[in-house]
Amino acid sequence: MKFAIGTLQLDYPTVLAPLAGITNLPFRKIVKEAGCGLVCTEMVSANGLVYGSEKTRLLMQSSSDEKPLSVQIFGSDPFKMADAAVIVQESGADIIDINFGCAVKKILKSYAGVALMKNPALAREILKKVRNAVTIPLTIKMRSGWDSSGKDAFHLAQIAQDCGVDAVTLHPRTASQGFSGKSNWALIAALKKQASIPVIGNGDIAFPEDALEMIHQTGCDAVMVGRAAIGNPWIFSQVHDLLQQKSIKPVDMALRIETMKKYLHASAAYFGELNACRMMRSRLGWFVKGLPQSARFRHAITKIRTCQESSQVIDEYYALLSNNLF
Ligand SMILES: Cc1cc2nc3c(=O)[nH]c(=O)nc-3n(C[C@H](O)[C@H](O)[C@H](O)COP(=O)(O)O)c2cc1C
Fold it and tell me: How far apart are CA 100 and CA 169, in angstroms?
């Protein structure tokens, strides 16, 4: 099952969801290596890019081994969004995604994210200006809107299509729902029936089997996975295995350990050793969730300050499991 967004052909119909604070370059690299079709940055402020914020620019930093890369921007000023899109294109990104789904207060106050689903005229203006400013594929990511009917999403998808947007992602929860309740996959199916551009389904894929179920229930062209990829980047290759009617293999412990170390070292190169180790004190724990002695590992990792100390804790955990020393 291949998948294209505009002129960009992807090997797999799987997409890493943008996750603020998580889908940075080191994380995207391990997800890509684990077989994901398309990785995405976290949301990047259009204003920050236009005003030259170095911190904002760093969010777009990329490397060839994660390509193709989708950069998600947010904002509500059509001119600034277009200028930001040009900056994103010039940075070498392969896709620009526009955030129409973020429901965080600060974003809503600035009329961006899901607030734009209440203002279709402004949404259209943004999409028109951005589409005219750049040539790379353009996508949008949205929620179901401000009520559970999905009418805001169907309307925005139609606008997006009219403006030359190349694909649309739907996370079918309402603006006020946050992450509560269930993602309403029936709305993805309804959108797929209406849309002439590819539809990416998102929400509540916890296991690889769920991805197949979503494709089966909705007919979506690709699936986007967020929370389930945290600590389990292999979910993407497992989805591909299922799509090819292969059985899923459990993740090899040696591969898990190697990936944790890669994530650690890539994070140290990106954030500096001490900052990275502080972050890794919680993040490495994601990778051992549900495994024997994971609480012991999570405790041991709380004090790491250097990559060497971290590697040692990882190795000790591996030895513990390999030798059944518990
Ligand atoms: C910690 C966190 C950060 C997120 N950051 C973003 C973001 O920057 N942009 C965005 O469009 N959605 C963001 N989302 C929403 C996810 O992309 C996704 O739509 C949502 O988690 C549902 O997918 P899932 O059930 O596979 O996690 C975030 C979600 C979480 C949990």
Answer: 10
Do the beta carbons of residue 175 and residue 117 sit within 8 Å? yes
Domains of the chain: 3-243 (3.20.20.70), 253-322 (1.10.1200)
Of 140, 227, 235, 236, best ligand 1 pocket probe by most atoms within 8 Å of the beta carbon: 227
Cβ burial, residue 325 (10 Å; 0-12/13-18/19+): exposed
Residues with CB under 6 A from ligand 1: 17-20, 22, 42-43, 72, 99, 101-102, 141, 171, 202-205, 225-228
- Write out the two tokens for 94: 């392969």
89, 106 Cβ separation under 8 angstroms: no
Residue 95's DSSP bridge partners are 70
Residues 287 and 231: beta-carbon distance below 8 Å? yes
Distance CA 143, CA 210 (A): 19
pLDDT tens digits for range 26-59: 999 999 999 999 999 999 999 999 999 999 999 9
Are the C-beta atoms of 94 and 70 separated by less than 8 Å? yes
Read off the pTM: 0.97
